[in-house]
Amino acid sequence: MMSGGITAAASMLNISQPSVSRLIADMERAVGFRLFDRRGARVHPTAQAQALYEAVRRSYAGLDLLDQAARRIRAHPVGTVRIAALAAIAMAILPAVIARFRILYPDIKIIVESLGQRAIEERVFLGQADLGIGVDVQGREGIRSTLLARAGYVCILPASHPLAARAHLAVADLAGEEFIGPMHEADALWTGIDTALETSGITVSRRLETQHSQILYAFVEAGLGVTIAEPFSAPRFHRLGVAVRPIAPPVHLDFALLEPDIGPTPEIIAWLHADVARETEACLAHVREVVASG
């Protein structure tokens, strides 16, 4: 299934091709159904083989979690804390948190990965991240999700844009504007923005799209259009001259702290939970000040 053929599988396993064929035949007898169909010189997996492969893959993922579970139960990371976070949060929240962390835990190494939502969930589920910071995923098996904040999105405009003269904006005000994506095929992170545009029944020009919010902000700063974006990056880009305005009806998203749902939370991770929450509250309070200042 992984290699795509018997020859490649034999090379991967360092055995002969007849041995691979014999092992497949033995397994088909054991499971009671055909795993591969021959079409000319190639073999193709059956639907039953696809289902079995997925079950095996999940089983191996479960085994990978055992080592992580044991480590967490020992209650102390082994010298390294791994954080997987959305880029906007990694930039806006984590610098101050890590600065305080270093004072308390000078010997602990921190690795921060800036990832999309799906990749964050995967890292946490597989135990490859001790802490994830992303969109809330209540109810996902294998992940413990703790609400961090319900963040209200903001409208971002070039400072010279005519709409920047208004203190408050409605989604309908963006009709006909050059609207900088999010990408339609990007993570569900962006669903609320598309829904707001559709609900308001307006048409915008979308000749430029990207999946990262900081790039959205940078494009707006360059005068390439307007957008609705997460608020965490707003103070940084407001200092660069970008206008930040509230938008109605509101667009918001629940962000959360994610961790593997195995064993107790280690003391160091619990400290990070609390400090990330405090820093997030402070960041969003700053955003509200920026919005109020016009």
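Next protein, fold it too.
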Amino acid sequence: MKTIKNKSFKPLKLTFSGGKVLYLGPGKTGQVPDAAILQKSIQALISAATLEVMDGGPAHSQEGGGKGSAPHETTRGHKPGMSTPTKSQRGG
């Protein structure tokens, strides 16, 4: 298995043998069989620098170290310590 990365700013739809389809969003990675890299359509995207072939590791381990690679913090309401003081914290 090879890991590929979409380096364009548009989503890609890649069709492989057997009717399989891989949808890659902008900047996203996905895994494809080694034989799929040899297809003419995939080779054209690689030579146009739209796709980048990475090592065969898992897709989630390839994303990191870059700008915006940290997961977004999910909060509901106010962050702890940022809310208004409760009645017990006001001293009265």
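About the second fold: The longest strand covers residues 2-6.
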